[in-house]
Specification:
The complex is a heterodimer of chains A (100) and B (490). By secondary structure, chain A is mostly helical. Chain A has three helices and two strands, in the order H-H-H-E-E. Chain A has a two-stranded antiparallel ribbon. In chain A, a hairpin with a 2-residue loop joins strand 1 and strand 2 (87-88). Chain B has 490 residues and is α/β, with parallel strands linked by helices. Chain B is 40% helix and 13% strand. The chains are: A mainly alpha (100), B alpha/beta (490).
């Protein structure tokens, strides 16, 4: 079943991606075609099959809990688009900006 | 033969005998890049000054060892290599072929890069890739298209198209790529070089920028099988920085290259000779299978009955994992950040403007299949069918030692031929995806030509049994001339 424009807009909202009007229509068509193709899986009876999330058998890999140095703060912040002192800077989250 | 056409092992011998210096070797390859890369466009970032500095240091170290009588030198001392631009390189731009990381300079090296450096390699630069390794042609790079050295009007394959083209064109002696659904093997096939996808967990993923974490593995692209064995031996092995890297012993891969495959059982999966396959590809692979038989292998047909479901499973699971992994590109910590007065607006504009069309398509698809109401029908269903695909391989590889198949149903296609139709592009990977879903190892080797373009055969093996696929690939290579052909690039 083809996706609606509203569904595509909802997915974009969840994925936090701003789309143009043209992109909404393009992705509506392309994602619908891909979903149509993957519907082939519904032909298989998988009632008794366990899902595979990963192929390795190991789980909860442990290591000695030894304190070690992290990357220096300057290295971590070197790629920040915007910083203030030792912090990343972002636009206001709340509607009313407030001073610390 | 010209210096830039040497294999890694030939260059090692010349360096060890003092017949060439690391500086002369690096200069020859850099000259080749200058001459060829305007046409091929394999590199996103070139690091010639660093390469020459490392080469000078390599020469000093070798001279020092000669004076002091020490004979243990790192195995890649002075060998010029290229790195796919999805692997982090400390102090060197790592863009993932994306605008969103245009200015990103990693503070650390990927483990595989650190291991190559520790082994003494000379770093030539970073190679082009489909954005975040999502693609099969390198056309999804946000920067430019890489051209196939065998025919500049055609794609080099992808997503490790830059690495494959660089090795084929003599612009590096070897390279690293990454393979999530065929991204090392398919470009290796299209460019007439060797490409190896290690078993999931064989090679550390630390510093390999995540696309689909249950599928991604880095692997070598080289001019012959022995070079692939050499590079794999250096990058393989457990890493404290990646808990999914396996504590499985790394054998001496060079010792596996015996040239003897008598009695080895080779399975040919009937589902891999797909309808619509290019006749020249099918003919070359059938000829190669006959060659393996002539070398003493016992060939039989096997079945991987769920093969047709690999494409839908992959294009549900990989985008789902990608949608989570790429949530980190939020314009806060690194990368592109769109100006906006409010946080949510900043996220949306940053991602809308920073990501290219294919990446947005996959994030959207992955977000959808993980969203409330669709998770079971799509994501969980795909994970269950993944189990069936794994079981197919387990059964087949209980009967035979390796599987052989074409790497791709076609040779390299013309630039632009599939870029408007994502589903057609995805079908280019139809023969490589299953192996990643099963988490096993595979190697693509040149096995002939169709329409004057290279054809690749992939040899697939059991988990952590890279030694056997290398042995088969090497025995085949020694009996055939294909790896000696070079593109007639000006």
């Amino acid at each position: 079943m083809p996706l609606t424009r509203e569904q595509v807009e909802h997915i974009a909202e969840l994925a936090k991606i701003a789309l143009s009007e043209g992109e909404v229509e393009l992705y509506r068509e392309q994602l619908s075609a891909i979903l149509d193709h993957v519907a082939a899986l519904q032909r298989l009876d998988t009632e008794a099959i366990a899902p595979t999330a990963r192929v390795l058998e190991a789980s909860n890999v442990m290591r000695p809990d030894v304190a070690q140095a992290s990357l220096p703060v300057e290295d971590v912040l070197a790629n920040a688009p915007s910083r203030r002192d030792d912090a990343f800077c972002v636009p206001p989250v709340l509607e009313e900006p407030y001073e610390l | 033969m010209q210096v830039h056409e040497l294999t890694i092992r030939e260059a090692q011998r010349l360096l060890a005998r003092g017949e060439i210096s690391a500086v002369a070797l690096a200069e020859a390859v850099i000259d080749r890049i200058v001459a060829a890369d305007n046409d091929v466009r394999a590199y996103l970032t070139l690091t010639p000054e660093l390469a020459l500095e490392q080469a000078r240091a390599a020469d000093l170290r070798r001279a020092e060892a000669r004076r002091s009588g020490a004979d243990s030198l790192p195995p890649l001392l002075g060998i010029p290599l290229a790195i796919k631009d999805v692997l982090c390189t400390a102090g060197i731009h790592t863009t993932c072929g994306s605008r969103i990381l245009e200015d990103f300079v990693p503070p650390y090296d990927a483990t595989v890069v650190a291991r190559l450096k520790d082994a003494g390699c000379v770093m030539l630069g970073k190679t082009n890739t489909d954005e975040f390794a999502m693609g099969s042609s390198t056309e999804n790079s946000a920067y430019f298209v890489t051209h196939n050295p065998w025919d500049l009007a055609r794609v080099p394959g992808g997503s490790s198209g830059g690495s494959a083209a660089a090795v084929a064109a003599g612009e590096a002696l070897g390279a690293l790529g990454s393979d999530t659904g065929g991204s090392v093997r398919q470009p290796a096939a299209f460019c007439g070089v060797v490409g190896l996808k290690p078993t999931y967990g064989r090679v550390s993923r630390y510093g390999l920028v995540a696309f689909a974490s249950s599928l991604d593995q880095a692997g070598p692209l080289t001019r012959d099988v022995a070079d692939a064995a050499l590079l794999l031996g250096i990058i393989a092995g457990a890493d404290a920085h990646d808990s999914t890297s396996a504590a499985v012993e790394v054998p001496d891969y060079a010792a596996a290259l015996t040239g003897d495959i008598r009695g080895l059982r080779v399975g040919v999966p009937e589902e891999y000779l797909v309808p619509g396959m290019e006749p020249g590809v099918e003919a070359a692979v059938r000829q190669a299978v006959a060659q393996l038989e002539a070398l003493g292998a016992a060939v039989e047909r096997v079945s991987l009955p769920h093969t047709e479901y690999a494409l839908p499973v992959f294009y549900l699971l990989a985008p789902a994992e990608a949608s989570a992994n790429l949530a980190r590109y939020d314009g806060v910590k690194y990368g592109y950040s769109a100006p906006a007065g409010e946080l949510w607006e900043m996220y949306k504009r940053t991602r809308g403007e920073g990501f290219g069309a294919e990446v947005k398509r996959r994030i959207m698809l992955g977000t959808y299949v993980l969203s409330a109401g669709y998770y079971e029908a799509y994501y969980l269903k795909a994970q269950k069918v993944r189990t069936l695909i794994r079981q197919d391989f387990e059964r087949a590889l209980a009967r035979v030692d390796v599987l052989v198949a074409p790497t791709s149903p076609t040779v390299a296609f013309p630039i632009g031929a599939k870029s408007q139709d994502p589903l057609q592009m995805y079908l280019s990977d139809v023969l490589t995806l299953s192996l990643n879903l099963a988490g096993l190892c595979g190697i693509s080797v040149p096995c002939g030509f169709s329409q004057g373009l290279p054809v690749g055969m992939q040899i697939l093996g059991r988990a952590f049994d890279e030694a056997t696929i290398l042995r088969v690939a090497h025995a085949y290579e020694q009996a055939t001339p294909w790896h000696t052909y070079r593109p007639a690039l000006a």
